[in-house]
Amino acid sequence: MKSITLLTASLFFSFSGATYAAEPYIGQFLYQYEGAGVYRVTVKDAKSMTWLCIDGPEKGANGVETPDRFKVANKVYFASWVEKTGINVTQVVNLNTMKVYSTILDGKERYVVSGNIVREK
To answer: Does domain 2-119 have CATH number 2.40.128.20?
Structure first.
């Protein structure tokens, strides 16, 4: 878990001048986190995304976000945003392996989760 946090931090500083996410990251996806729920994530353009928890402890929770997203490698993206509740989220989305790695900061609590991605559209 510590290595994912270090990877996320190093990606943020290394790629802060990189380009925004491109075409492969556009669409509708299911993020199936191990033991933490299933989220429908819709990315319509490089500047916004929506999410809805469809199963798990946060079922029904949703948001519209304006993340900073950067292409790290072929079909690998880094994303970061602050939700309206003040929760900070960072992610590495790997569309080669269809995996997502997220760090969530909620006050003094930190959660590191990973899961599988299914492209819906």
So the answer is: yes
